[in-house]
């Protein structure tokens, strides 16, 4: 994984980085193959790094270009000749044949690069009370599901991490391959609003703050909002039920007692 120091140094000299091969290496170093394809291990740190790279890239290039020309998005599970089974792999070098490393045994071997057909997709992203349309290209066979995260990379706008809230084909569905989806409805999760109700002496005061989607809130934790210090006593999830701890992107409301 590329370090923040290395990334900063490279970006400071970005005017000299005209080679597509160098930009490709930057992207591959920035995030793992599994993060690009499934987003299960995606972090806000990687998203920030991607945004820095995108901002410094020559105008003719963007993340979707690399998805088309370099097949960075290869399968999570690849057959390892040493393990004798399908395992997770990390991409080392891409080309007509991808050079990959098994994450189980460390064996380095080549696999035939697959060119995936891409489809254009309209994504309506809501952030607090505002919504914006984005247009992205993703593999036609990629299965989209309500509730899962989707990296929205519109070359004309900033990269945004989102959570799918609705899928529209000929009707509203819970899951569908990208090729059959007309519109994706999603909410931004990299920066989210959190509603907080603070109780004191029979009165409850409402607050709303904006925090990173990955920021964790826990029952019993002491926090401060607009000069009021409070202890979290209850966390209601966007899904049904309550939790003792949850990231901000999953929270509907936080209740606290002033201390």
What this model shows, in words?
- This protein is an alpha+beta fold and 259 residues long.
- 18% of the residues lie in helices and 46% in strands.
- The chain has five helices and 19 strands.
- The protein has helices at 4-12, 20-30, 33-38, 44-56, 63-70; strands spanning 77-80, 85-93, 97-102, 108-112, 118-127, 130-139, 143-145, 149-152, 160-168, 172-173, 175-177, 183-188, 191-200, 203-212, 216-218, 222-225, 228-237, 245-247, 251-258.
- Strands 5, 6, 8, 9, 10 and 12 form a six-stranded mixed beta sheet that branches. A five-stranded mixed beta sheet has the order 14-13-19-17-16, with no helix packed on it.
- Strand 5 (118-127) and strand 6 form a beta hairpin.
- Helix 2 runs antiparallel to helix 4.
- It is globular and about 70 Å long.
- Mean pLDDT is 78; it is low at 1-20, 28-42 and 59-75.
């Amino acid at each position: 994984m590329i370090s923040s120091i290395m990334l900063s140094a490279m970006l400071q000299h970005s005017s000299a980085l005209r080679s597509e091969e160098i930009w490709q290496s930057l992207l591959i170093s920035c995030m793992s193959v599994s993060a690009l394809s499934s987003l299960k291990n995606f972090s806000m740190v990687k998203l920030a790094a991607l945004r820095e790279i995108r901002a410094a890239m020559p105008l003719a290039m963007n993340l979707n270009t690399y998805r088309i020309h370099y097949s960075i998005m290869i399968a999570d599970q690849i057959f390892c000749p040493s393990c004798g089974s399908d395992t997770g792999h990390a991409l080392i070098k891409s080309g007509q044949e991808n050079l990959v490393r098994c994450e189980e045994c460390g064996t380095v071997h080549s696999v035939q690069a697959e060119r995936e057909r891409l489809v254009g997709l309209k994504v309506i992203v809501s952030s607090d009370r505002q919504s914006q349309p984005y247009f992205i290209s993703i593999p036609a066979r990629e299965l989209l599901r309500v509730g899962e995260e989707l990296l929205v990379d519109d070359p004309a706008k900033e990269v945004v991490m989102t959570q799918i809230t609705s899928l529209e084909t000929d009707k509203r569905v819970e899951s569908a391959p990208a090729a059959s989806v007309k519109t994706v409805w999603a909410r931004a999760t990299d920066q989210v609003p959190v509603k907080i109700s603070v109780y004191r002496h029979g009165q409850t005061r409402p607050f709303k703050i904006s925090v990173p989607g990955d920021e964790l809130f826990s029952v019993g934790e002491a926090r401060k909002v607009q000069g009021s210090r409070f202890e979290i006593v209850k966390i209601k999830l966007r899904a049904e039920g309550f939790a003792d701890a949850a990231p901000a992107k999953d929270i509907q409301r936080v209740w606290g007692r002033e201390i």
